[in-house]
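Still learning. Any example?
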Amino acid sequence: MNLPFEARIGLRYTRAGRRARRRNAFISFISAISMSGIALGVAALIVVLSVMNGFQKEVRDRMLSVLSHIEVFSYDGALPDWQRVAEQARKHPEVLAAAPYISAQAMFTSGDIVRGALVRGIDPALEPSVSEVVTNLKGGKLSDLVDGQFGVILGVELARALVVAPGDKVTMIAPQGTVTPAGVVPRLRQFRVIATFESGHYEFDSTLAMIHIGDAERLFRVDGPVGVRLKIKDMQEAPRVAAQLAGMLDPGLVVRDWSRQNRTWFAAVQTEKRMMFIILTLIIAVAAFNLVSTLVMTVTEKQSDIAILRTLGASPRSVMTVFIVQGALIGVIGTLLGVGGGLLLANNLDVIVPAIEHVLGVQFLPKDIYFISALPSDPRASDIVPIAIISLVLALVATLYPSWRAARVRPAEALRYD
């Protein structure tokens, strides 16, 4: 190979050939341990971040099965000309569908049980185009939600708390009261439970109820929908699309994307992910700096070789390069093994985790406790590339001191006793 002699010697020290196997067995073993430590640290960081990405994606998707990608509403109350607003929004190339809605707080009673809920008035014909949860109802169909018949669809946890099932009756108490000679009397209306839904997100399953938008107008005394829910092609682009829609629509309208509705939760997840990245990067740092002891031992063992190189005309810089090549090669191989192993594990967790559960006889995510029964994984290049770069940089930094020490070896002193 037409390689510089520094690279050839560094490669030879790393692989410890047959002639030097006995003499360098321990150094080769320590090099392998350092390489394995880097690989394990990189693989662990990739797997952990992939699982965190998977959980975030799973929760986000379940949220968006209930929430809309973008909402357009007015602080003034009703939005009587919602068709014009929807038509203007559909002119944006990213917008796929639009549906009106009414949102208000109310209470539900069943016997002696009282529960607060967020009541959403929907159009059964348009709602499936912007929401996935209404397509998987239990105990009934969305078409059973008819204007004037006062049917209600409850979240499965809310129905369980009220001890009702499809076909049962519940009473809704609207906050807007009716003025009578005896004072303000709350408006009551009996609804029939036509179905339940399960989004997999407890907050929505325990607090959300859906009724026909016509019934909501009469019950809450509003003149038309209060806003329009929009679905776009790529939910990740919702902030950008929302900003563009704000410039397209009337100035009095408010445009809000899904990330703003759950800003606190997503900020907490991002903070947790950053902290895990920092903590697990320390594992890679510990493994990378094991190279210091490995290379120091190699320098001590190879002092006579260094002295011979110096007497043959090698400069201190060339000697330093030899050991930088050795350490960098260990870092590169360890990083590549870690990235490969991490991706292999992250992409096969759906097979590996059930196998471990079967062997150990345990279940990490019991179905009766967690809505997610399988460990999700979502490896991303935006995480893997920085991990690989940090690993390589740490390995390279770890080679500097031993290489500098090798360059300071004096040939006369090194060969005095040889």
